[in-house]
Structure formats: C-alpha cells, structure tokens
Amino acid sequence: MRSWSSPSVPALDVAGPPVVLHDVATGRRRTTEPDGPARLYVCGITPYDATHIGHAATYVAFDLLVRAWRNAGHEVVYVQNVTDVDDPLLERATAVGTDWRALAERETELFREDMTALRVMAPDHFVGAVESIPLVEDLIAELEARGTTYRVDDDLYFSVTSDPDFGAVSGWSRDEMLRVYPERGGDPDRPGKKDPLDCVVWRAERPDEPAWDSRFGRGRPGWHIECTAIAREHLGGSFDVQGGGSDLVFPHHEMCASEAHAATPGTPFAQTYAHAGMVAFDGEKMSKSKGNLVFVSALRHAEVDPMAVRLRLLREHYRSDWEWTDADLFTAVDQLDTWRRAVAVGSGAPSEPVVAGVLAALADDLDAPTAVAIVDRWAADTLGVSGLADTSDRHAGDAVSAVVDAALGVRL
Ligand code: 5CA
Ligand code: ZN
After folding, report:
1. Does the global pTM surpass 0.85?
2. Is 386 a residue whose pLDDT tops 80?
3. Hey, which of 87, 226, 248, 281 would you mutate to test ligand 1's pocket, going by the most ligand atoms within 8 Å of its Cβ?
C-alpha cells in the first residue's frame, strides 16, 4: 500500500558511530553489522482506531534507529506492515456498523498523517495483510511441505515444536507463555491442538467474516504468519532488526521467528530483536481495548506542535515503560521553545561536542534522553541561563539544529 513521504533530513559533516542495540533474545547489547543495507522490520498498526501516544512512541523509537543507521553511513531498507484484516478490526467495524475495509483505510490514512506530522521516516515498503495473502499462501505451503502444519476442523495450525529454537526470542518459561497466550489472541484450550501453544496460520471462513480462496480452502491468514511472510519477502532471511512494542515479544515475535525457522531451517529470522516499552495513561497500558487513549491527531487538532510531542517522547528511553501526563507535555513545549531561542542566536557554545555527543548517544541503544540533555546544556550555555552566554562558536546554531533534525527528528 502507499507509504507516506519522509521528511527531508540534513546531511551531517561527521559520521555517527556503529549502532548498538539491546537484543531482547540474548539480553545483551549487540552491535548491528549490516551487510549491505541495514534491514529493519517493525510491526505496524491494526487500523481500527486512531494512532495513540503508545504507537507514536514505538514508531519514533525505531525512527531513531533508521536515523542512527543513516548517520553511521548505512542505507536502510525499512518494512512495516498494516494488519488490515484481523479479529479486533472486524469486531470494531461490526460494532460501529462500518465496512471493515473503509475503517481500515480511514485509520491507516490518519496514521500516515500522524507519522508525517511527527517527522517519522517512511518505510520503504508499507505492506497490508490483505495484499499479502498470496505471500502468506506460499509460506504456508512451504510449512506444509515440511510437515509443520496440521488441521483442526478446517483451520490450519503451525506446530511450534517443529522449531527447536521456539522460546528463544522471549526466553519465557512455558508456564508464562501459557498464562499470557489467551490474552494476546491465542487459543491454548482448543480441543484437537497438538500443543496448546500452536498458532493458527489459516483461519477457515466464518459466517459474516471476509474470506479469500486459497489452496487450503476459503479463509484468511492468522496474525503471526502475516509478518513472517512480509518480512521474508522484502528483507530476506536473517535481517538486521525485528522491532515492535514489548507487548509483541510473546507470542507475536516468537511465532514469527519460529515460522521462519521452520520454513528455512538454519537461517535466523532476525539477528536482533528490539522492543519499545509500554506507554501508560491513567495508571494502565494505553490500549485500544481499554480505551485509555491520548490520540496524536487530537493533540494536533488542539494546536500542540507535533515537535513538542516528539520531544516529549524523546525524554524517555525507548525501552522504559512510562506514563503520559499533560504536565510533561507542557514541559516539552517550553523546552522546544528554549532550543529554538538558542539556535536563533546563530552563534553559540561550541557545537562540535554537541554533534558528537548526540550521535554517540543515539548509536548507544538509542539513548535519546542523554542526547536531549546534551542539547539542553548547550541551549543553557548559549542563552546564558546559568551565567554568561557563550557565543564562541559562530555557526553553532546551524550545526546544532542540523544534528537535532537529523538524529532526533526534531525540526527547530
Ligand atoms: N498489527 C499488530 C502488529 S503486527 C499490532 O500490534 N498492532 S497495534 O496497533 O496493536 O500496535 C501497533 C504497534 O504499537 C505495535 O508495535 C505495538 O507493540 C505498539 N504499541 C501498542 N500499544 C502500545 C503502548 N501502549 N505503548 C507503546 N507501544 C505500543
Ligand atoms: Zn507484526
């Protein structure tokens, strides 16, 4: 499907260092070593409601990765899916009496507008589940040929035991998996399954649900197989980073990886698994199902500068869980104003350490809070907040705004 337009990004004179990420599968820091273009897959939205701040935080986090790679001199191939057919979308469409396609299209368009406003770099391949059904069919056929699928009634399941590495992404115990699985779309208690953790890859047609013809009968894809098929098609095996929010560690990323391993034994799905923390509101994880949401579009319509929203997000480390408050947003509005006043001076405190420090912080597991603190200090020195203004660097304003734009994605 159509992506959105990426913001223009200033080229910097200095290259950033190699990018290190915390890998969830090993629990260790790992230096990404792209062989050719850096290849990134980030799980996209299920478009049944508007983009909330939790989604925005996740996509801004991976936008920092795209920018860090580019600043380190890599080309990037970025793939993101849109789960434009799945249970929650169909349920919402029925509840509000809208056609599910119209709902998905409307919310996907709003997402594009929100991402554009937040200056998030566009994926090179923005791919819907519906348009990927032929890919999914081919992948299921591969899995079937390897004897890793079976039927329960007319539905087709993937056998998790066919991947000896099943469990390696999350590192969770079986008990933990069994506890969480039903809360995240799984059906451990369904009679006829070989293992309670097996996941559906092709769901046979149900009354009043959309369905497509396939060699496995009429039906629609399961959730996990969608991302496995799209990632393999556009990125190949063993791509650099699989990303998403931490709510996707299990079952989603575990299943995606196992399906890929079963189809191509010996080739890891991704090299690094990176997950963004969960944003809460009113004491609970912000989620469409709970309804405790702050929408990016609502903030835009309330005339909040999207760059202040972005700066608010950058004040948290991407891996931490945190809570959204209006007070923190207003702090970011003031902070953005201070940065803008400082760069408007033109000259300023030395910019070289700022440029190097910001690039280094972002290459170090996307440490945006440290980068933000470096710019804060520079702005305070330049404006003389804590004594005399330092205007010793004649081109500091331009250099700092360029790195803040290129690395943090904040246009001053
Ligand atoms: N379509 C699937 C992924 S294939 C999905 O999870 N869609 S979603 O709309 O529910 O979420 C979109 C992305 O936002 C996912 O990466 C998810 O992990 C992330 N996300 C959802 N809620 C939050 C939250 N409260 N805080 C941070 N990230 C979140
Ligand atoms: Zn996904």
Report:
1. yes
2. no
3. 248
